[in-house]
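REQUEST ID: PR-0412
SUBMITTED BY: lab tech R.K.
PRIORITY: routine
TASK: structure prediction, single protein chain
INPUT:
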Amino acid sequence: MPHLAEGIARFQREVFPAKAGLFARLATAHHPGTLFIGCSDARVVPELITQTDPGELFVVRTAGNLVPAHTPGTDGVTAAVEYAVAVLGVRDVIVCGHSACGAMTALAEGRDLTAAPAVAAWLRHADASLARTAATGRQGDVAALVRENVTAQLANLATHPSVARALAEGAVRLHGWVFDIADGTVEELATAAGPALAA
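STATUS: complete
OUTPUT:
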């Protein structure tokens, strides 16, 4: 914890003063242009990867960058997606997977998750990703599963009423990205939901 306290002190001493005007504007306004749905993995930091300032990205992070398909009822991911699209009016939505994803590795390798039942239940949202990977003949291939999972989560995202409406109106574009931790590259996957966002 001491390094976190030192980080806060350094932020207040060195970073905040240089961006005081930005933070003054952000104190009364919130208009991000992009919803970024990424993995909870500590190695994947959306603002660092995209070099964006505070206020530019509305970020949702889940284990495996999973987005449950819409169902009746509420959950945190659904609420965040709806708020970003219907209330904030983001124009772009990115689902970003990454290399060496622990969630995708566990699924690809068929690891026993009985000691982590909540994790096992959550990862069921990647069943379609596993099926898609198996259909390509690459079952057990983590990199292939990461890519198929991004595509499957984009399909899940499109089932959310707020997203479906925005897509129908041409008000939002969906993008699938894969971030490679080792070399820092970002690959944009081909999607049918809109033109490419520069990555």
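NOTES: The chain is about 45% helix and 15% strand.
REVIEWED BY: pending
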